[in-house]
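Weekly modeling sync, notes
Attendees: S.R. (lead), two postdocs, one rotation student

Agenda item 3: backlog of single-chain predictions. S.R. asked that every request posted to the team notebook include the full sequence so nobody has to chase files. The rotation student volunteered to paste the first one in as an example of the format we agreed on. Action items at the bottom.

Example entry:
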Amino acid sequence: MRLGIAVLAIFMLLVSCNEKEQNTKLAEGLWRVDLNVMDNQVLPFNLKVNKNADGLYSMQIINAEEVIDVNEIVIHGDSIIIQTPVFEGYLAGTFSEKEITGQFIKESLDRIVPFKATFGVEERFDSENNNASKDVSGIWETYFSPDLEEEYIGKGIFLQDGNRVTGTFRTTTGDYRYLDGIMDGDSLKLSSFDGAHAFLFTAKVTDSSLTGVFYSGNHFKEPFVATRNDGYELPDPDSLTFINEGYDKLAFSFPDSKGKIISLSDEDYQNKVVIVQLMGTWCPNCLDESKFLVDYLKENDNLKVIGLAFESAKTEEKAFIGIERLKERIGLPYPIVLAQFGSVDKVEAQQKLPMLSNILSFPTTIFIDKKGVVRKIHTGFNGPATGDKFVEFKKDFDVLVTQLINE
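Predicted structure, as returned to the notebook:
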């Protein structure tokens, strides 16, 4: 039996355990969690442990300005399961008062990353030089996997205060979350962890260039290079995907969790402005967009939204469990149908929607007017970590939707 399945079985068995009966306690306050990734690198993130008056634990994952509340924690003896919110990933291990050792597990992808967590270590990264000899504040034109077939572009956006660095990389398909780290001499170290992805960026820095490696967990790495370019911008996300010649409308028929087939031809969507969201419950950028849509729909009940889920879960049953968990956790009011499971391959996804020129990103957002005409297709999502770009997206979204509703 794979370790991940064994741990999940233990998790299900222990859900009913009463934490207050356990003798081993976790120290309250800040911890540092170190994931062991490739090339003997360590990917750290900060974790705050809290305990309420009833003796129940809660936690907060901290990445720069992002604080992720964690309240699905199971303790039995010296064993602990920490389930991250919305996403399937969880931390499982054994603990003492000031140390936890175990694995970060994503079962659908058969991924297991060892970790060690230590109480009282507030610094995200250890520093060898204790000072910064370079400043990376500003905009960086970035190329991942440069000169390779897999090459793609990005835009680094960073702010440095002393030796602390925060920011993100934007790409044509989304952003790399809230990155948090340090400038250690001329070495840049940034990381982010949210339960879906574990990202580490390391780079050597000159006044005008970055040369580094991007690690995703312990299963993937790629080189990247960047140069300072304050005027650099990525391609227009509204120009990357379009309706193929020979098609005039978007069409699909996929089931929801109750087996009901939902399609744009249903009466609910006739003479309505509709947003179709290509997404997955494993996707942090999709979660950001879904939270935005939840808030937007509270003030705009004339808009209809349908989510088309492309899931990594290996069975239809597990895919729908993930979908229902997402809906429950963030109060999602619109239907999510299952377009694909067992793979999030974009080529396979496009076969489900042949009228689209290509599917480059999850999320992809399709704006449809009252006559069923596709008016815009937006690739990717600039989430809260992108600052001004997120503000710009919200403004443009509202302007277009308001125009379509008033037509």
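Discussion: group reviewed the output briefly. The radius of gyration is 22 Å.
Action items: rotation student to repeat for the remaining queue; S.R. to check formatting next week.
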